[in-house]
Specification:
Blueprint: H1 14-21, E1 30-34, H2 40-49, E2 56-60, E3 81-88, H3 101-116, E4 122-124, E5 128-131, E6 134-143, E7 152-159, H4 189-209, H5 219-226, E8 233-237, E9 243-251, E10 257-261, E11 266-269, E12 273-276
Length: 281
């Protein structure tokens, strides 16, 4: 999956991506495109242990074991989407702030959908890209366990063309969608990957410059503007099996969703599934 020249427009063009993105012309250290792999995140987590450099990118034409949050599978068939991961090694950032890199990736998703594909979208907390009530993309960020050489891997999956009939719905019966189904003006996967990677490094550079502080870097204000969960009545399904229902009122500087419960108390959610409820629920 390394062809170029436009002979197969549905293929990912590794030469264009490298020419535009990889040093000395661009901000990334290395970029590879593979036809298929199990999981780009898993591959880069392994590469991190072997010393892969900061801002290493892996793009796949398909994934056979793609993962979403809470170890769910992410359907990623050949030719239907953009599946990529970035390894970052922001050594000066406090470990407690590394997890907010997912917010950076979410803002880059908004850019790829809106600016590149021409599709208006919102973010569902923490980082699902919603278009007209369908999930068209998602983010999975993971932090390595090596304290001596801290790193994070950020993976994105963008559904570009329809996935087919057998794709399971997500939490809250959220159906899978694609940018093409939502009227995208651009469905070239190379251009969408390029757009996401350019936006990601721009937001990530500001985040890194401000030591991972999402307030000072502007990431938090951008995320709040993009987050369609704020203001919604929601049910938070927590990892311990319990649930909380109320109105989502804000996202805090740690990336937690703040929910005003029905009894009036504020409840911060750091992990779990948040289901948007209908107004009459």
């Amino acid at each position: 999956m390394t062809g170029h020249g436009g002979d197969k427009p549905d293929e990912l063009d590794v030469l264009i991506l490298r020419e535009r993105l990889v040093a000395p012309n661009g901000p990334y250290a290395a970029l590879d495109v593979v036809a298929s792999t199990g999981s780009t995140n898993a591959d880069l987590l392994a590469a991190a242990k072997d010393g892969a450099p900061d801002r290493t990118v892996l793009v796949a034409g398909a994934q056979t074991a793609g993962r979403g949050r809470r170890d769910r599978s992410w359907v990623s068939p050949p030719g239907a989407g953009v599946y990529l991961s970035v390894l970052v090694r922001p050594s000066a950032i406090p470990p407690a702030r590394l997890g907010t890199i997912g917010m950076v990736a979410g803002l880059a998703l908004m850019h790829a959908a809106g600016t590149v594909a021409g599709v208006p979208a919102t973010l569902k907390w923490p980082n699902d890209l919603l278009v007209n009530g369908t999930k068209c993309a998602g983010v999975l960020s993971e932090v390595t366990q090596d304290v001596a050489a801290q790193a994070a891997v950020v993976g994105v999956g963008i559904n570009v063309t329809p996935l087919g009939e057998d794709v399971p719905v997500g939490p809250g019966s959220l159906p899978a969608g694609s940018l093409a189904e939502q009227g995208a003006t651009v469905t070239d996967r190379t251009q969408l990957a390029l757009g996401w990677l350019q936006a990601f490094v721009e937001f990530e550079s500001a985040w890194r410059l401000h030591d991972g502080d999402v307030e000072r870097s502007g990431v938090l204000s951008g995320y709040r503007d993009a987050c369609g969960t704020i203001g919604q009545r929601v049910r938070a399904e927590l990892p311990d099996g319990s649930a909380r229902t109320g109105t989502a009122v804000d996202v805090d500087p740690d990336g937690k969703l703040l929910i005003k419960l029905d009894d009036g108390t504020a409840y911060p959610v750091s992990a779990g599934d948040v289901v948007h409820l209908k107004n009459d629920s």
